[in-house]
Design goal:
Blueprint: H1 3-20, E1 23-24, E2 30-31, H2 33-37, H3 43-61, H4 66-83, H5 88-96, H6 98-112
Antiparallel strand pairs: 1-2
Helix pairs in contact: 1-3, 1-6, 3-4, 3-6, 4-5, 4-6
Length: 113
């Protein structure tokens, strides 16, 4: 595994943290910018999907297996579809954390090879 892949993974990990866990709430629960952006009706969920799609695109450029990319895409799709439901979807978006899930999948893939 080359240094460039390690750098890309570190950047994606940082982006996922920013999108899903950057803000600590009372009680230790963490939310990110993706959930906050998602509160804006319509465009918020699409903007969040674009950031999530960037992580998926980077994973594809690292030549991850199609099955893994499909699983990551499903995580994004699930978050967008359920996230578009008023209120309930916003709560789901804060809890599901598709970006962190997807970066974790990338990490597990590279640990297994």
């Amino acid at each position: 595994m080359g240094g460039n892949t390690q750098q890309t993974r570190a950047k994606l990990d940082r982006l996922a943290w920013l999108l899903d866990s950057t803000i600590r709430l009372p009680g230790g629960f963490r939310i990110g910018l993706d959930g906050i952006i998602g509160l804006v009706p319509g465009v918020g969920d699409l903007a969040g999907a674009a950031f999530s799609g960037y992580i998926l695109l980077k994973a594809a450029r690292m030549k991850l297996p199609f099955t893994l990319l499909a699983r990551m895409g499903f995580n994004i799709l699930l978050e967008v579809l359920i996230g578009s439901i008023p209120l309930l979807g916003d709560l789901f978006d804060f809890a599901f954390k598709a970006n962190k899930r997807n970066v974790r999948l990338i990490k597990k893939h590279f640990e297994s090879i």
